[in-house]
Design goal:
Elements: E1 2-6, H1 8-15, E2 23-27, H2 31-36, E3 40-42, E4 48-50, E5 57-60, E6 62-66, E7 74-78, H3 84-88, E8 99-100, E9 106-107, H4 112-118, E10 120-121, H5 133-145, E11 151-152, H6 154-166, H7 174-185, H8 190-199, H9 202-206, H10 208-211, H11 228-241, H12 246-254, H13 273-276, H14 278-287, H15 292-309, H16 316-325, H17 332-347, H18 358-371, H19 376-380, H20 385-408
Helix pairs in contact: 5-7, 5-8, 8-11, 11-12, 11-17, 12-15, 12-17, 14-15, 15-17, 16-20, 17-18, 18-20
């Protein structure tokens, strides 16, 4: 039995990056031997075990053969005869197909270290094209390591293109796709993930609503970058730069989908795109089974982001409706995330990234003003039921009028 550290742990150590998760491969062992040493089996698909003390995953060296469609369409074969090189060749990228023993002696049969030094993301073997999930994984790695100068090898991009055209991407489950998408959006350069997907044709298959934004013009006075797709990438870039959470990044990606439906004769204006885009945002949400908080914020940002930009001009009654739409009194965090998404949208414009966004503090102040209305005095006056609700609404409107007047003074 020989045990090797493999994959990301080896890659990140060589890159000088912190190593978080460690994967181990066991060569020359049987399931029975692992169980006898106290390892606990996990998963029914292939022999993976948890270490009796550390809880880390140890997998028996295995080969795989394509037997069906999609990410799960593989037959695995694990036995003591499977070599380390045979196990490594089934991995996605050369930089992930290296192993080291407990003395840090490197096993690198597919030149991963060379590609690390050359800053290239390259597939290990033609079997890469058998797994559609790898399209998303490579795009995610491109987003993660873009800042270090990594690019996707042309021949790997070509295989990704072939996969995108093969129909295999449609076989991916919503859960697997979302796992990759959500991880990619939380990388330092999430816009690169979208760019790579678009370059290989996968964006058109997975998110045609986002792909449709490229080439759609916007008024240059408000959007110096003009192209709606380019703007969306810039908004996503700003969201990452400002360390926004996943909910905000997802909303930033989807906020302008309605502009993809504007008839060409109406370009570059996009009247009511906030409303026309809602059905598209809903479709993308459902396709990937995004978490509820991501779904809700994306729809609210899609519908109300222009309200956010015009916050200083809104009538107190419109401001009150906006706050109520977000249930701001019970869910203040969601409104804060809306404000953040609006600010990222404003900053995601060429040359305007550093411009101040006073709307953010104005909206926060409005929420505080409305929230400060005390309910107890109204109860003491005898209001209850629907009458109490109307009385609270009147008082909040009064508070917002006073807030607007003070802000304008």
């Amino acid at each position: 039995m020989r045990i090797y550290k493999v994959g990301g742990a080896v890659r990140d150590r060589l890159l000088g990056k912190p190593v978080t998760d460690i994967d181990w491969v066991v060569v020359g062992a049987t399931t029975e031997e692992m169980l006898a040493k106290g390892y606990r089996p996990v998963g029914a698909d292939f022999p993976v075990f948890l270490h009796p003390k550390s809880g880390e995953e140890y997998a028996l060296a295995r080969t795989e053969r394509k037997s069906g469609r999609g990410y799960g369409g593989f037959t695995f074969h694990a036995s003591p005869e499977v070599t380390l090189e045979e196990d490594l060749i089934r991995r996605d990228l050369t930089i992930n197909a290296m192993a080291e023993d407990d003395q840090q002696n490197l096993t690198d049969p597919y030149h991963g270290q060379r590609d690390l030094e050359a800053r290239i993301l390259r597939h290990v073997s033609p079997a890469f094209a058998e797994d559609p999930l790898r399209v998303l994984r490579v795009a995610r790695f491109a987003a993660r390591y873009y800042g270090m100068g990594f690019t996707v090898a042309p021949e790997t991009l070509e295989l990704m293109r072939q996969l995108s055209q093969s129909g295999e991407l449609q076989a991916l489950t919503a859960e697997r796709s979302w796992k990759e998408i959500s991880r990619a959006l939380m990388e330092d350069q999430p816009q690169v993930f979208i760019e790579v997907l678009r370059e290989c044709g996968a964006l058109k298959v997975l998110m045609p609503e986002v792909d449709a934004l490229f080439g759609v013009p916007q008024p240059e006075t408000h959007h110096p970058e003009i192209d709606t797709g380019v703007h969306t990438l810039s908004v996503l870039e700003q969201a990452a730069l400002h360390k926004q959470p996943l909910t905000v990044r997802w909303a930033c990606l989807l906020h302008d989908l309605g502009k993809g439906l504007t008839p060409e004769e109406e370009w570059p204006r996009h009247i009511a795109h906030e409303h026309t885009g809602l059905k598209l945002i809903k479709a993308v949400n459902e396709r990937f089974k995004a978490p509820k908080d991501c779904q809700e914020l994306a729809l609210l940002v899609g519908q109300y982001h222009t309200h956010g930009h015009r916050a200083l001009e809104l009538k107190p009654s419109t401001l009150l409706e906006l706050l109520q739409s977000f249930d701001v009194y019970r869910r203040p965090q969601r409104f804060e995330e809306f404000v953040a998404a609006c600010e990222m949208d404003a900053r995601g414009r060429k040359g305007l990234e550093q411009r101040s966004y006073p709307q953010a503090d104005y909206l926060r102040g409005a929420a505080i003003a409305a929230h400060s209305v005390a309910v107890q005095p109204l109860l003491e006056k005898g209001f209850k039921g629907p009458e109490l609700g109307e009385a609270i609404k009147r008082e909040r409107l009064k508070a917002l009028k006073a807030y607007k007047e003070a802000a304008s003074a």
